[in-house]
């Protein structure tokens, strides 16, 4: 049997299995993230024209595909997380609101957010320190608020009592007080984040993500803003004020 027939047979079977698993909500992944691996096709093409035996070409092809997927998902699993308990539809959405009152003596605030999936937006101000409004069925979030020497540290984390990772149904609207200096520590998994921070004094923004979609718009309310972004196969857009200096490492 020729290498070409084996190769294309394996490719078609793999794509078919992925479609079935995604449609059955057994695994979640983004086809856009998979498409970012298109250079693997060039590698496979190169393997096909190497003058070696067919069994060696097949081994090299399997290794190339395995390495590509392992690099894509080295930080977050390709399937991300399996669904536990029952299936949820939109009629079973569970809304949640979290608020922390603002104290004018708080000069700095830190938001630590652990969000596996969903659509998150920050673009509005509030008289509270923070307002967190969640609409969806992935589960509820827990709040921990701690005072420290410089202000408050707010930790919001998705609880694992009920996990439905098959669908990214959560929508979260976050509103912040514009008076404190803010630090952000975001662990966002495969979530979509739209952060319009023009009205806030942002000192540090640390993002750790997987196959995420990230949109950041910075303002000039604070003299220095530091960003640290570590993600997998993500889409990232960062907008900086035209009048601000910018250094990229």
Shape: elongated
Oligomer: single chain
Task: Tell me the count of domains.
Answer: 2
Biggest pleated sheet: 7 strands, mixed
- Topology pattern, helix = H, strand = E: HHHHEEEEEEEEEEEEE
By DSSP, the count of extended strands is 13
Distance between the termini: 50 Å
Describe this structure in words.
- This protein is α/β, with parallel strands linked by helices and 249 residues long.
- It has helices at residues 3-23, 31-35, 39-48, 54-72, and strands at residues 96-100, 108-114, 119-125, 130-135, 141-147, 151-158, 171-176, 181-189, 192-197, 201-209, 213-218, 226-230, 235-239.
- The protein folds into two domains: 3-72, no CATH class; 90-239, no CATH class.
- It has a seven-stranded mixed sheet, with no helix packed on it. The protein has a six-stranded mixed sheet with strand order 5-6-2-8-10-12, with no helix packed on it.
- A hairpin with a 3-residue loop joins strand 5 (141-147) and strand 6 (151-158).
- Helix 3 runs antiparallel to helix 4.
- The model is unreliable at 73-92 and 161-168 (pLDDT under 50).
Could you name the key traits of this structure?
single chain, 249 residues, alpha/beta, 2 domains, 7-stranded mixed beta sheet, 6-stranded mixed beta sheet
Topology:
Layout: H1 3-23, H2 31-35, H3 39-48, H4 54-72, E1 96-100, E2 108-114, E3 119-125, E4 130-135, E5 141-147, E6 151-158, E7 171-176, E8 181-189, E9 192-197, E10 201-209, E11 213-218, E12 226-230, E13 235-239
Parallel strand pairs: 2-6, 2-8, 3-7, 3-9, 8-10, 9-11, 10-12, 11-13
Antiparallel strand pairs: 1-4, 4-7, 5-6
């Amino acid at each position: 049997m020729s290498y070409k027939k084996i190769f294309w047979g394996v490719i078609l079977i793999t794509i078919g299995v992925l479609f079935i698993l995604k449609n059955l909500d057994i695994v979640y992944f983004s086809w856009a993230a998979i498409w970012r691996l298109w250079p693997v096709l060039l590698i496979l093409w190169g393997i096909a024209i190497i003058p070696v035996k067919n069994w060696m070409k097949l081994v090299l092809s399997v290794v190339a595909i395995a390495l590509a997927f392992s690099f894509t998902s080295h930080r977050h699993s390709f399937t991300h997380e399996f669904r536990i308990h029952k299936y949820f539809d939109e009629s079973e959405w569970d809304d949640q609101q979290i608020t922390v009152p603002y104290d004018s003596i708080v000069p700095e605030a830190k938001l630590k957010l652990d969000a596996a999936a969903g659509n998150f937006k920050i673009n509005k101000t509030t008289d509270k320190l923070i307002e967190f409004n969640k609409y969806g069925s992935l589960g509820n979030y827990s709040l921990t608020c701690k005072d420290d020497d410089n202000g408050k540290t707010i930790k919001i984390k998705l609880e694992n009592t009920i996990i439905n990772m098959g669908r990214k149904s959560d929508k979260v609207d976050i509103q912040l007080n514009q008076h404190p200096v803010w630090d952000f520590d975001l662990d966002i998994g495969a979530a979509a984040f739209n952060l319009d921070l023009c009205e806030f004094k942002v000192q540090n923004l640390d993002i750790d993500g997987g196959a995420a979609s990230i949109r950041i718009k910075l303002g000039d309310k604070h003299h220095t803003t530091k960003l640290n972004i570590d993600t997998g196969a993500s889409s990232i857009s960062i907008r900086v004020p035209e009048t601000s200096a910018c250094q990229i490492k």
